[in-house]
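pinned: reference chain
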Amino acid sequence: MAFNPPPPSIYSSNMHIPPDVPVFSGSNVSLQNGMNGSLPNDGNQAQNYSRNDYSSNEQSAFAVQQATADFQRMKLNVDSTFSSTQQHPPPPIPTVVSPNVGYPSNFNYDGTTATASFLSAPMVSVLPPQPDAPAAPPVMNSAATGPSSQMLRSGFPSNFANYGPPSAGFAPPAANHPSTPIMHPVNVIPEDRVSMSQQSEELMSSTMDGKFNSPLQPPLVFHGANMPLAAQSNYNASSIPLPPMSSQPSSMPPMCPTDFPSMQRLPMRQSTTTLPPPPQPSGFSGVPTQSPFSPPSDFSKNAVPGAPPIGCSMNQYPPMPSAPMPGQNFSHGTSSPFPPTDGQTGAYLPGGLPPQPQMPANSQPKRLDPNLMPSAIQVFEDDRKTKAGLFQTGVDHAELPPLCTTEFYAEDQGNSNPKFIRSTMYSVPVSNDLLKNSALPLAFCVTPLAKLCPEENPLPVVNFGDLGPVRCHRCKAYMCPFMVFFDGGRRFRCPFCNTSTDVANEYFSHLDHASRRIDMMERPELHLGSYEFVATKEYCKDQLFPNPPAYVFVLDVSYNAIRNGLVNTFCQNIKLLLQNLPKEHGKDCMIEVAFITYDQGVHFYDLKNGSGSPKMMVVNDVQEMFVPMGKGLFVKPSVASQAIDQLMEQIWSLFGENRITEVILGPALQAGVEALKAHNRSGKIFLFHTTLPTFEAPGKLKNREDRRLLGTDKEKTILTSQSDFYAKLSEECRSVGCGVDLFLFPNSFIDVATVGEICRLTGSQMYKYPYFEANKDGDRFLADLKHAIERPVVFDAIMRLRTSTGLRPVEFYGNIAMNNRTDIEMATVDSDKCVTIEVKHDDKLEGGNAYFQVAVLFTSVSGERRLRIHNLALSVAMDYAAMYRSADVLTILNYLAKFAERHQMQKTPKEVRESLTSRVAQILATYRQYCSPNSSLGQLVLPELLKILPLLVNSLLKSDAFSGGSELTVDDRAWLMQLLPSMSPLDSVLYFYPRLTPLVKLELLNESPPAVRCSYENLLPDEAYLLDNGVLMFLWIGQSVPTQWIQDVFGVPTFAQINTDKNQLIEKDNPTSRSLRCWIEELQAGRQRRAKIYIIKQGEKLEPWMKKFLVEDRNDNCPSYVDYLCYIHKEIRSYIS
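pinned: its structure tokens
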């Protein structure tokens, strides 16, 4: 393959010391294998050795008079060194180190090693969680008991790069250099504690082989004690960058160490190089508060690229106070995070750390490679390799399913298929305290009509006749596999309310020796997790069975719709699309259709006219809409095929020369609703609209676009509805059981935030085609319309989640409406819609299982009233370890996205970002505190199943739905926000972390091409890549792509001749072109919307736009993945402290 191979796993066992690691002669400093001691590895005790384990020479280690002598008696603990070719320094990952065993390491401003002899690179090891261990804080000296600085809550604090250990953990700056260093401590081990026994080496080898005795998932451990802070020989206050979270753009480079070494411990080797003498310290005062992201105005020729101008005053930066994590009442000290100096010369005072030796002139900078950070691509691939194929849902309680990115088919064993319902965790915490302290959400992503693969059986339909569905007489839960029968089968106990109910005679069956009904396997509701019941009249409106549903097509025929080709495209293709109307398996299609057109009036068509030609009736009084005709409005396409053909020709002939530009919208929607109401039908309206409705009529809107407000605290004024007309109309739609799919074709502002209310509150979807041209966008529009027409759908739906005693649903997210606190109303529900429900505790749970049941009452496409039931039993977690090892990170991402989207309309963008970041930090801090209490505070401990959570949340915050500013239109931003509530976990992970695949040798592969991490560093100039986020696709072409590939795909001989204006792939009859088009079609198959493809050449003007979707890189006002991970580590330390 011509593309980059995946980066080496952090769990690989072939790590070695790079040849460019400096070795110092004539010194007592040795490179040890990342161990400060030796402990037995019993599976629960981590192979992780704290610097605080050593107490010898504690009283003399920090004495300034003996600093040099002490250092000569120490061994330097090094796991590996940093290596990378990045151009910008990422932010540091800090440490708290006991000052009696730590000496500072010296680093350049840009994150490179200034003195390699003092560098202790980060160790990465697997640390089994310890569920039974007490939550004792790590051993620290008094100077390390408080956070180093206040967390300024502005997305990222203004002193983001200054975090680090408390005052004893930093060294003062050296003199006569453009910038002053922030020193970083390393592990320095007393000489008499360094030597390792053979047993220790064997234990290390066991760790390298990945052998663990603990049954828990091993977490990823980042030893932050060895991760350098940005530093130089001198300090300039504004030289410390911080990753911004404000709306202001940044010109500063990223700033974290770039190479992240593997967890394997390196063999010891003796240093042979004499250490240079320490430099004279220089003065330092305070913590910088000036924003470092404004472009520097001047540089000296020796200044580090990206550093601020020389000569800034140091005294203008006051020290930063401390602040607890949100929701915590911890008291912190206010000590400076820097070692004490005399305030003038910068000399060390007692209790400080000795200065660093200067960086040799010929030393080679080392960086931390972001590709060695936890990778979403690797997590998805590992899950696919281990869990693809058959998945058994579990008998007693649900098993942790494969990730939603993995293709699998489920065997229903009594718990519902994960495609229908997913939980954020598969062990429910026993109490609210456990849930609250962890900050993990307990939520369920429910896709009631999710599509099943061919290997899975369709849901059985159970008909009890006049008896109706069997239910608990108290909580009204429906019969399920978790009901317990007793008293010879005459009674059953409900698992949701623990109440007993008598069994009707018609439903009675004897029990076997195990107290199970003898007909259990014959009744789907007794052994399956998902099934359907046929409802009786008691479940119908007015005690009457419903009529079959209908579809109403409402078409804009104004001048704009004629000019851009919308009307012509619709009329030529609608008859073909109507052949795919949804129907029940084995039954004929029962759906009838009607057609309405509008401009400044509304036009109805009688398709059952006896004369053969459709008859048009016009309503010009749009203030009070009514339907002027009777039964001829709705017809079956199979019966009225000829009439539909004639109508399409008539529409074009009547309106082909239309010059009306001002149009209505509200009355057209009312016409569709009134048509369904008049015929007593539920159904769906497909409305096609082109311009802002400015004509004097109900639903009239005004132009209020102001891009400058996006990204500011005032953005909610233009992202919320300017009128309540469409929200009130949605209530009428729900009463009829009518959803509205909007297809918008704007050339200017159309106020998506307002007109989209009709979709959001009826369980429907909005499609948007700005600057629509039929010859370019017609195929995409028709593909979307085809999918919207033929996908599985139900109407007039009500959904409720029932839970075990002690739990209750509290928040509901989706394209839904709520008239009370329990029932979710949706005019329509289709196979793409997902509803997320958050659950909280009312009381402490008992041991065993917690039970959940989703019931959806609906009208099917055949007009039958039914109930669809999904059941789930989850084990009860008694400790934090059980919670973290049963978490589903992609379902958590889905919940956090919907949570943040709702709060965007209630809080400022900064507050939303702070809330998400703080929550992620608390989730990981709780794991570190309770599941890995013996690890050093300087270690970033990530649970195995949540190790990519920081990556995904940072990607979420970078998305245009949350961070889009004035570069977007107001309509684009509002549309993206309206996509989020109905997204399934698979849709959301694809949108926030796009799929990037190489293409040049695609035709040589027998399977899907391997994905590449979303970073510009991974794009090779001799390769082409496809970036796909489910909404947009980018075909990126490197400058050195083989000319034969260019010829095969684009039909031109050179890179310069590729035409990127049309954004179209020409169909060529060769394997390269066919494989590329087939791959794109495979990605788009089954999606609810067809992504628009943009062709981007390397180095051209549109490339920066595409780079925004490379979410692991730093862009505009958002930090890189490494930057964000470092900040999360700082937040974790502050929370634990």
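why pinned: The chain has a mean pLDDT of 75. The chain has 26 helices and 36 strands.
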